[in-house]
């Protein structure tokens, strides 16, 4: 099994655990839960371009106004570099919170290194405030990846990486009644 396949499997398994925890809490009759599938494009200080997919689940309690709590997972591939035919990838998974059109994702971020570059596969924390307007969103991310998971001679972890992601998503109501105003759905 390839590294991207294993990473995607782990990310999906983590998302399933988070989603199960969200559904374990008994929802009020007026709550609404959405699952969203989307495509993303990113640029990072350590990678010029990445294209990928995102799956998220959000629960909105009407008693909380427009706020919601949920989970996300992202898988992103970057084009091969001139120095190598490797296809680097990034996977992130974690909780997200929203209030109106604003929100934040906080999660684990894993990136593969590239032969010919001085970075190893790296693991760390990603924080991404975002603005969501229904089917479109933009986020500005900071990832600190201090842990090298695949040490190679002369390599090092990614360290600090800043980025911007834009995405389009398709939110589907899976529980409760649709919200009249839901900028994140």
Can you tell me about this structure?
The chain contains one helix and eight strands; from the N terminus they run αββββββββ. By secondary structure, it is mainly beta. It has one domain: Porin (Beta Barrel), CATH 2.40.160.20. Strands 1-2-3-4-5-6-7-8 form an eight-stranded antiparallel beta barrel. The longest helix has 22 residues. The mean pLDDT is 79.
Provide keyphrases for this structure.
about 180 residues, mainly beta, eight-stranded antiparallel beta barrel, 8 strands, about 10% helix, about 55% strand
Task: Describe what is shown at a glance.
It is built from 1 helix and 8 strands, in the order αββββββββ. It is mainly beta.
Strand residue content: over 45%
Level-1 CATH class name: Mainly Beta
Quaternary state of this entry equals single chain
What's the helix count? 1
CATH architecture: Beta Barrel
Helix and strand topology:
Elements: H1 3-24, E1 32-44, E2 50-60, E3 67-77, E4 89-99, E5 102-111, E6 121-133, E7 136-150, E8 159-176
